[in-house]
Structures are given as C-alpha cells and as structure tokens.
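From the shared-data thread, chain only:
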Amino acid sequence: METEIVVHSSDETAALGEVIGKSLKPGSIIALRGDLGAGKTVLVKGIARALGIEEDPVSPTFVIMNAYEEGTMPLYHFDLYRISGADELYGIGFEEFLFGEGISAVEWAERIEDDLPDYTIDVEIAIPETGGEASETTRNIRIKGTREWVLSFRNTAERALQTSTK
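Structure, as tokens:
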C-alpha cells in the first residue's frame, strides 16, 4: 500500500522524517530514492530526531555508512551512490547492520533492490517542475509499505503535518 505527501520546505521534509521515525520498530529498513538534492538526507535527519539522536546526520557518500547509536534505537544511515551492487557491500558486514536491531536508512536503495526484504518501507522523493524548472522547495513524497504500517502512518502524518495525503 502507498500514500503520497507533498511538502513545501526542508523543514516539512524533516518533520515528515520525524513522523516516520516515530512509527519505526527495531529492524525497520527505509529505502530512500530520489535525485541528488531531493532531500533524502534531510528526511534521515528527521528520523534521527525522532529516535532522540542529537548528532545531526550527514550524508555518508564517501564512507558508505554512518552509525548513530546514542538514541532510543541505533540508526544506520547508508549512502549507496558509489556502489554498483550488493556484492560490494557484503564483504564489509553490511548485512549485519541492515538486518540488525537498529533502523537502517538506505539512500540510493535501488542499487540493492533485489536484496531488500518485503517489509522494507520505500520512500521516493520527487522534485516537481513548475514552468519548466525544478522546484527549490516542494517535494512529492511517495511512501510504500505494508498495509498496516501505511494506514497507521497516514493517520499519524495527517495529524502531525496537517497536510493532505492520498
């Protein structure tokens, strides 16, 4: 099942991440998709805030993963932009983090699409165009997950963000 939310600023994107973060359980995996600059890391910052992590997450583009373990649950933030496939990751213990008890947020998740479990929460961030130019602030965010999770999330998001979902 899926839901779609339109946000109009990076603050709203982070707030959406916070709502997502509050709805996660140990072992949750969030697959983040979107162009460069779409707001994937901003969303992860909101998730971190929901988990009580004080450190401000930064994109782990060159290190592949940043671990934040001081919150209510560990957050493992992956950036697979420079990875061509899952084979490159399994030799470095990727699966121990991905399938562990923490929360895994995976940017550029399409690089390991076939290796993600069915319970993965899929978040796609699109930058709409207006008048032939990409919006600087508005994002269309489509979230897919299990029916139970999406229904619960949708109710929480509508109250928390006071925005329309469909």
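The mean pLDDT is 90.
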